[in-house]
Structure formats: C-alpha cells, structure tokens
C-alpha cells in the first residue's frame, strides 16, 4: 500500500454561500464523513495545512488582485465582480488556506513524507487566473502547488491532469507560454458549457506551444470516450513530456448524476482515470501524484467517486 497524505482543514467550512449555491461546505462535510465511515481516513497520513507565504501566492497571482479580493471580503461584498463567485468575510483567508492545502500535499510528496497526496480543499481553483477569480474559484490552487514544487523543491517538469467537467481556463492561461508545465484538460465541449474555452486548437503559445492539450468531449460522452482520450492522447503526450510529478485537478462533476453538466461518466470512469494517472506516475515519476479537489456537486456520486479515487491512490 502507498503512503497517502490527506490534506484538510476544518476552516474550509467557513467559506459559505450567501445564497443557494452548489459549491457549499456540505460537500466537504460529506467527503470527510464518508472517508471516516469507510475507514479510509485511518489509512491516510493526516498532514497539517498552513497559510502559504506571500511568495508562494505571488508566484501565480498579482498583488493587486489579492488586494481586491481581500477588500471585497472586508467590505462584505457577496460576490466577486457581481458574478457567480460568492464571498463572505472569511473567503479570502479560506482561499489562501485552500492553496495552503495544495502546498501541503505537494510538500509531503516532494519531501518523501508520503508517496501521494489527496487534498480535500475548497474553494476550488482551476478557473482562477493571475488577476481574475471566476467560476467559484478565487486562487488557483493547482498552479500554486506547481510553482511551489518548482521554486522550493527543484522540480523541473510538472504535468497537470484536469478532469473536472469544466475547462481549467485559469490554469491553462497561467501556464500558456510555459514549457515546464504540461496542462491536459478533458471537459465537456466549450460550446455547451462554462467557461467556453478549451478547444482542441488551444495548444499553448510561444515557448509553451505543445504543452497544452485540450480534449473537449461532446455532451453524452462517457467512460468509453474518456478511456480512449486518456489512452490515445494523454499517454503519448506524457511519454514525450516526461513529468517529474503529476498534479490532478480532480473534479467529480463529469459524473452522470452531477447536475452541472452532461457528461455521463460512471463511478468506474473515475476509477479508470485515477488508475491511469497512477500508472503514468509509476512509469515516469516514481509514482508521485498530488490530487486536489475541484468541482463535484452531487453529494452521493461525489462521495462514492472520492472513495474510489482514494482507494486507487493507495494502491501500488
Ligand atoms: Zn467543474
């Protein structure tokens, strides 16, 4: 069995919506309850989550943007830029702590305290860009973790696998011109779903051309189509890129029961994707995987898929 770090902080529950909203603290309550009741919590290594330092956040986000979010929370704004990303007075701090959870997982794996990590964090991050928050995301957790690994642990090449049903536009933009971070996103086709980006021809820019790979999927696609994409597109790309660690933007909203999209993955689809990432990590980077929670809004499928995800991360 692999040593799997578990990164969580009870303060993640303090980021609460001021109105009915799918990205709620109940998601994490259900996940942690389920990991306890299945005995899986006891099989993981609990890792303390701290606030990141300034340099860690500034490696991804602009100071002016951080000030803007902090001030909006202090003022009592209910949303960022009047859009779908809600705020309360804790939200800025909890977004920092969410990024801190991603760093804690990355640190545990980089330092060898664990082989892999699962970070049950919120708010999610993959829509947040350098100076913009959107799509329920304030800070880009996976990007902060990637930059942390490069800056503090001498890691060169990072692969990010984003299987949230929405395109990880924030992550893509942050690393668009960076050949050291390979970004793979599989998502519902942008014609039919937020945020409207992630088309096949978005492949990176400048020095980063070729290290962005988008796999847009038609509504109704499911396990077979995802499996083909992983085997035929991701696998050869990873073989060429040779990552030193794999980060996963693990959203669970591509499940057939999730109300936010029209992809039809079953629980087995999530088992396959996790297994595939683990096998790629075993082949190319000593098995190192750090998985971060992104979306996933239907509680029953969210918890069952995370159980499967964690079980697979624990396997050799
Ligand atoms: Zn999503």
CATH topology: Arginase, Chain A
* C-alpha-based Rg, rounded: 17 Å
CATH class membership: Alpha Beta
* Largest pleated sheet: 8 strands, parallel
Structure class: alpha/beta
Explain how this protein is built:
- By secondary structure, this protein is α/β, with parallel strands linked by helices.
- It has one domain (4-314): Histone deacetylase domain (Arginase, Chain A).
- Helices cover 39% and strands 13% of the residues.
- The chain has helices at residues 26-37, 54-58, 63-75, 91-110, 141-153, 169-174, 223-241, 267-284, 299-314, and strands at residues 4-7, 45-47, 116-119, 158-162, 181-188, 212-217, 245-250, 289-293.
- It has an eight-stranded parallel sheet with strand order 2-1-3-8-7-4-5-6, sandwiched between helices.
- α8 (267-284) links the parallel β7 (245-250) and β8 (289-293).
- α1 (26-37) packs across α9 (299-314), α4 crosses α5 (141-153) and α7 packs parallel to α8 (267-284).
- The chain is globular.
- The termini are close together.
- The mean pLDDT is 98.
- The structure holds zinc ion (ZN).
- The site of zinc ion has 7 residues, from loops.
């Amino acid at each position: 069995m692999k040593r799997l770090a578990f990164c969580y902080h009870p303060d993640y529950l303090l980021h609460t919506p001021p109105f009915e909203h799918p990205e709620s603290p109940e998601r994490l309550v259900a996940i942690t309850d389920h990991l306890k009741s299945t005995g899986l919590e006891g099989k993981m290594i609990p890792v303390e989550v701290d606030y990141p330092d300034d340099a860690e956040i500034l490696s991804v986000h602009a100071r002016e943007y951080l000030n803007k979010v902090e001030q909006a929370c202090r003022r009592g704004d209910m949303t960022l830029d009047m859009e779908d990303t809600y705020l309360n007075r804790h939200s800025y701090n909890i977004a920092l702590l969410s990024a801190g959870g991603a760093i804690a997982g990355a640190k545990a794996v980089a330092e060898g305290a664990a082989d892999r990590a699962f970070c049950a964090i919120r708010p999610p991050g993959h829509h947040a860009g350098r100076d913009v928050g959107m799509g329920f995301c304030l800070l880009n957790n996976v990007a902060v973790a990637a930059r942390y690994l490069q800056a503090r642990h001498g890691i060169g090449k990072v692969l990010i696998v984003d299987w949230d049903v929405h395109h990880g536009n924030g992550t893509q933009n942050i690393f668009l011109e960076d050949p050291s971070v390979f970004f793979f996103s599989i998502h519902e086709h942008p014609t039919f779903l937020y945020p409207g980006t992630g088309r096949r021809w978005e492949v990176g820019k400048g020095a980063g051309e070729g290290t962005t790979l988008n796999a847009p999927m038609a509504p109704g696609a499911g396990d077979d189509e995802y499996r083909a994409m992983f085997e035929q597109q991701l696998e050869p790309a990873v073989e060429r890129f040779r990552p030193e660690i794999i980060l996963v933007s693990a959203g669970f909203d591509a499940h057939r029961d999730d109300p936010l999209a029209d992809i039809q993955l079953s629980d087995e689809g999530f088992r396959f994707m996790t297994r595939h990432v683990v096998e790629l990590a075993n082949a190319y980077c000593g098995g190192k995987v750090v998985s971060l929670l992104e979306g996933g809004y239907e509680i029953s499928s969210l918890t069952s898929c995370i159980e499967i995800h964690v079980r697979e991360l624990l396997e050799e």
